[in-house]
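ugh ok fine here u go
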Amino acid sequence: MKDFFKFMFASMLGFFLTIILLTIILFTVIVSLVALATTEEISTPKNCVLQIKLDRPVSDRGPKNPIFIDLYSRSKRDGLTDILDNIHKAKNDDNIKGILLDVSVIPAGLSTIYEIRDALIDFKKSGKFIISYSEFYSQGAYYLASVSDRIYLQPQGMILFKGLDAELTFLKGTLDKLDIKMQIIRHGKFKAATEPLFLDKMSPENRKQISELINNSWGKIVEGISASRSISISQLNQIADSLKAETPEDALKYKLVDQLAFKDELLQDLRKKLGLAEKKEINFITLEKYSNVPDSYNKLSGKDGKIAIIYATGSIGGGNGNDQSIGSERISKAFRKAREDKKIKAIVFRINSPGGSALSSDVIWREVSLAAKEKPVIASFGDVAASGGYYIACPATKILADPTTITGSIGVFGVVPNLKGLFNNKLGITFDEAKTNANSDYISITKPMPTYQVKVLQAAIENIYSSFVAKVAEGRHLSRESIDSIGQGRVWSGKDAKRIGLIDDFGGLDRAIEVAGALAKIKNYSLIYLPEQKELLQELIDQLTGNETRSAIEKEMGEYYKYYQYLKEIQQMKGIQARMPFEISIN
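structure:
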């Protein structure tokens, strides 16, 4: 028996050593391959077409390593900055003759698509062509494709063109079944972040703000399509109301597309445009490969200084966070670095956030305020910069957003679950306690909050809201009364935000960089990107050790991932929240 255990443990040790060795080898091979690929520079083939697919999630900032693959989902994430840079580079690249948009469903927000569309409109100033082809155009994809000189649709394909529908998820029924009571303390009649916890449908105030939000966004979509396709806005709305774009024949009839064609027919038309023989292979280059083409057309040497772009994406919390979540420590460190570096003459603060922890937002606000006193800070809003996302931006020298950006939501709330019913009535669990002081049990989730404790929490929320309003008023040079009147937790579109003074002007990331350069009085500048991203090896370690599993869950759950994500957001709400008033899915 003694020998048996000896051999068994020896075998187990050998097994684990083998696993460790294989892991080291795997790391070595992956690192070598990726390092080789990322350092390879290529040149653009002559008479070439840039192919843009946009079939992967688009975040403001792509991974540090261009070909980095998520080991769980075996997919990559595109960066908006990289996409815009490549389109601008292609505009001046004599070897690029045009762009083929091969888009179907674009996993990106409307404002992100809006910025890419603007870059394509700018590309057309070069006189080069843009052609679109797809078997299916979602509304976002068609909005982007509408800038094309010619739009192709597969003869059995379709265009989804129906208007915008905002769907909210309500959990009251589930909580009632579980006998869970959510104790809500909030300020702001529009602060609807908590509504899904105690209502089963939208309040009148929430319905009002969401209706205005999606109508403004839809208005911008049809306005852009109308200008590009020479179809009146009223006619576009009639097409959407009657679902007249469902069949390819109707899409052609109503001039949403120019031609119904199979892929081989599209390729033949492209050959004619490029002056190629009938069976000659077309030189396509993808965005991914084109990223490795040196930008010899950018003549800026950076002699006048640098502009720092600081990215803040995701919910706001404490600690370091990562590229998909905002950690107050990580963002604060980036601002200190940019503020103290004399070579950095201006800062662009790119924000894509629904908010989060009020305390963490205040930590970041302080660093933005200090930086803005020393050099221009331009806040650039992406798809959403609301509540805490607006809080951290309000000290900026200037604020820019797209007309479709979701912003505002100046308000705060607190949620304390009362799980007594669940524990007592559903699980048979009871609690008892002994305490030293009258409120030693502040805050408990196993019983209802006493009236006094509710008053204390309400006072804290009122204090934070008052501070929020004061800081916005100071940053926007408006009165507290005016900010309170447009606050109360109400969400605004970028279009309305400009009208009421929450932003200064329209524009995406490119425009924000231009404004930063102008305010800093520099023309020849280089860009530096912060916070610093992880090295490749650390990214791989995080994935193999299970620290980065979101994409795997997202891939497995598909469209239902949003419900999982919503529950995770609720679970992570610690302390008083400055968060957007709803989780919304715009279809």
